DNA sequence: AAGAATGAAAC
DNA sequence: GTTTCATTCTT
């Protein structure tokens, strides 16, 4: 890892250490609550994503920024950001000395020259992502509301809280409500909801537990699931998997392998939930532990859907001006994060479920604690079904040692360095492995998880191999599971998120969650720098003349690079089939926006249409970067042609994933659930009902 | 904490 | 039209 892991961390720590109230928020929010224990800020944030909606309203303001912040979900990434995330590591590899800014510039250049078709893939993904996000968070506003004028602070906290908890059937409503809340926020302490995390002690926890329990009841029945703990162990699995577990292993495999059509998926999901409700279902073996939690009482109504809650704003990380100071206390150490308590398991489970329901996938990380728990479960069975060989690198459960590069097999022989980096994932995996190796039951559990993962991965691969081609979009839709899952499961909390995308993000290790997330993300084609170079070259040449060189350049020169296309996490690098020519149209360049284009005086349009900066303006800033000369460009570009790379892998990327459920589908489900949740809460399906459903579930599985 | 890029949404 | 913020991570 480059140091990068830390990138975000620093801020985090600061904040955290400073104090992030997040926990508070977490506490009050069921979902958050669960996470809170485990994770540090980051996680929370992620969690928040799920929640978000009201965010703005609520609290943004003053004091409780934290509150707000926590809740606030992060905006979904746009196509370019996805691209950056996916390729930044490559750029960095190529130009180690280049700093991020420089890398960003290069990425912008790449983006500019990227073939429209390829670009479209990212665009589609971004859209899908956004759509899902919005479904999950209906009232989400990109911009936190500026602060609203506060009215009277006095709103009743209770109300606010309740509202929060209550389902928002109407987002709009909530938002309005939320807005009001800010006031309340101002006086957080008072608020029930707002209570300081720090202060919150056992009581809060109890409350949370109660809520969770409720939630759990609603969502998953205590019984089978109850095993929340058990489940939790499995956390690695997605909710879907959990559901699936009900079925025999083979069936599970089915889930893994076959993509369900969305509608089906939805149904399954729904039914599955219902099924879960009933204890009677032949589900898994359950353990009963859940009861504890469940017992807690709280009114169901309240608990119901907190997830929706909106959120507020804050971003924490970097920019936000807001400040971190607001936090009250640092008490909570950032580090503490992980959750140890058993409860966490439960939480995780619930969280997972809800997440799935919501369709919230937060970003990448979610906590998973599964690993910790020892409960061994039975998942082992799962393995057999797998048809694929496990090339998957991730963590192959069984063999800790091996890290094969998946990619390798696929294609690239040489990728070594890059692979390694990419291996990062493996790295993650590695850690897991070690754990596994050490612990018995735990090990099993992990294995099972891993198996699942690997299976999935294999499946995916297989698919991809088959070819989908590039493809696209929808089909490739993310699995909800993955999203939800990932959140839930991820064991490593913080880092993942922020940290370097490369490694961690990619990392699959732990959970599927990540894996899933990754898959989706990975499904996006990753292009070799060479490709871009070429393009740029072409472009450059064309334009070249203009004065100096614009920022385009990729630098490179490294021959090595050429040979190895990048592969990150398994994903292959593809070379888009691009034609360099296209480039012409696009204005290339990275001109920063800061200077409004309109205001940019130094850019002149050249004959070919490009904008060329005035000489002075762009500087080569980094040592690395040299201004390119044609030569440079040429060098780079040259060699690369790897036909194969392109096609093959790419495919997998987008297309490869089985689309278990589309995000949209999940979102839908979530929405429905929300709507009805209250009802359900009140009345649990009768056994008979459940039974009726069972067949459905089965059938789904079969399919 | 700033900043590099693009883009989507909100002012 | 302009501003925010999403990601990453070095400086």
From TrEMBL:
CDD domains membership: HMG-box_HBP2
- Biased composition regions of type Basic and acidic residues, renumbered to the chain: 416-437, 512-521, 616-628
The residue ranges marked as DNA-binding region are 73-141
- The region called Disordered is annotated at 1-73, 149-191, 282-437, 450-628
What is this protein identified as? Answer: HMG box transcription factor BBX
Q: Which organism is it from?
A: Cyprinus carpio (Common carp)
Q: Which residues form the signal peptide?
A: none
A GO cellular component annotation here is: nucleus
């Amino acid at each position: 890892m480059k140091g990068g892991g830390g990138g975000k961390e620093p801020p985090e720590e600061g904040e955290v250490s400073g104090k992030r109230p997040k926990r508070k928020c977490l506490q009050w929010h069921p979902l958050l609550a669960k996470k809170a224990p485990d994770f540090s800020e980051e996680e929370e944030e992620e969690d928040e994503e799920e929640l978000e909606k009201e965010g703005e309203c609520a609290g943004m303001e003053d004091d409780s920024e934290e509150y707000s912040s926590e809740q606030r979900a992060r905006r979904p990434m746009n196509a370019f950001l996805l691209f950056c995330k996916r390729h930044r590591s490559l750029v960095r590899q190529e130009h180690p000395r280049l700093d991020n800014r420089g890398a960003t510039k290069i990425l912008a250049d790449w983006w500019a020259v990227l073939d429209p078709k390829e670009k479209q893939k990212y665009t589609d993904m971004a859209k899908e992502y956004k759509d899902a996000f919005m479904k999950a968070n209906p009232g989400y506003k990109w911009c936190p509301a500026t602060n609203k004028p506060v009215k009277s602070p006095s709103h009743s906290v209770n109300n606010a809280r309740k509202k929060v908890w209550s389902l928002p059937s109407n987002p709009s409503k909530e938002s309005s409500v939320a807005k009001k809340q800010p006031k309340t926020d101002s006086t957080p302490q008072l608020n029930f909801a707002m209570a300081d995390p720090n202060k919150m002690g056992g009581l809060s926890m109890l409350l949370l537990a109660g809520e969770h329990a409720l939630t759990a009841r609603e969502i998953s029945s205590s019984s089978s699931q109850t095993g929340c703990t058990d489940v939790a162990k499995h956390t690695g699995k997605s909710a879907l998997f959990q559901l699936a577990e009900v079925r025999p292993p083979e069936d599970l495999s089915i889930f893994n392998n076959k993509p369900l059509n969305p509608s089906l998926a939805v149904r399954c999901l729904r039914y599955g939930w219902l099924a879960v409700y009933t204890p009677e279902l032949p589900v898994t073996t359950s353990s009963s532990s859940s009861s504890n939690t469940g017992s807690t009482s709280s009114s169901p109504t309240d608990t119901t859907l907190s997830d929706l809650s909106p959120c507020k704003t804050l971003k924490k990380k970097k920019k936000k001006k807001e400040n971190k100071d607001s936090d009250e206390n640092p008490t909570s150490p950032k580090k503490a994060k992980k959750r140890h308590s058993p409860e966490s398991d439960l939480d995780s489970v619930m969280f997972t479920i809800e997440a799935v329901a919501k369709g919230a996938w937060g970003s990448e990380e979610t906590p998973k604690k599964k690993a910790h728990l020892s409960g061994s479960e039975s998942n082992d069975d799962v393995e057999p079904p797998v048809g694929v060989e496990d090339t998957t690198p991730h963590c192959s459960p069984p063999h800790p040692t091996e890290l094969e590069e998946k990619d390798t097999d696929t294609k690239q022989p040489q990728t070594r360095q890059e692979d390694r980096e990419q291996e990062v994932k493996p790295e993650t995996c590695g850690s897991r492995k070690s754990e596994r190796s050490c612990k018995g039951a735990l090990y099993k559990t992990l294995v099972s998880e891993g198996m699942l993962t690997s299976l999935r991965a294999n499946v995916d691969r297989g698919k991809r191999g088959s070819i989908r081609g590039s493809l696209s979009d929808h089909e490739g839709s993310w699995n909800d599971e993955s999203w939800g899952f990932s959140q839930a499961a991820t064991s490593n909390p913080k880092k993942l998120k922020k940290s370097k995308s490369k490694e961690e993000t990619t990392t699959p290790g732990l959970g599927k969650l990540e894996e899933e997330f990754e898959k989706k993300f990975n499904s996006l084609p990753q292009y070799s720098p060479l490709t871009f170079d070429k393009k740029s070259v072409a472009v450059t040449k064309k334009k070249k003349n203009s004065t100096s060189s614009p920022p385009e350049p990729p630098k490179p020169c490294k021959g090595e690079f050429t040979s190895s296309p990048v592969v990150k996490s398994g994903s292959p690098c593809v070379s888009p089939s691009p034609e360099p020519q296209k480039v012409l149209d696009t204005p290339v360049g990275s001109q920063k926006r800061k200077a409004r284009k309109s205001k940019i005086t130094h850019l002149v349009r050249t004959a070919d249409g490009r904008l060329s900066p005035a000489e002075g303006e762009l500087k080569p800033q980094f040592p690395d970067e040299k201004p390119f000369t044609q030569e440079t460009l040429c060098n780079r570009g040259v060699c690369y042609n790897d036909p194969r790379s392109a096609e093959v892998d790419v495919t997998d990327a987008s297309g490869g994933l089985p689309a278990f459920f589309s995000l949209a589908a999940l979102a839908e489900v979530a929405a429905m659930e929300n709507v009805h949740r209250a009802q359900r809460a009140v009345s649990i399906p009768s056994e008979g009902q459940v039974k009726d459903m069972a067949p459905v579930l089965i059938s789904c599985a079969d399919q």
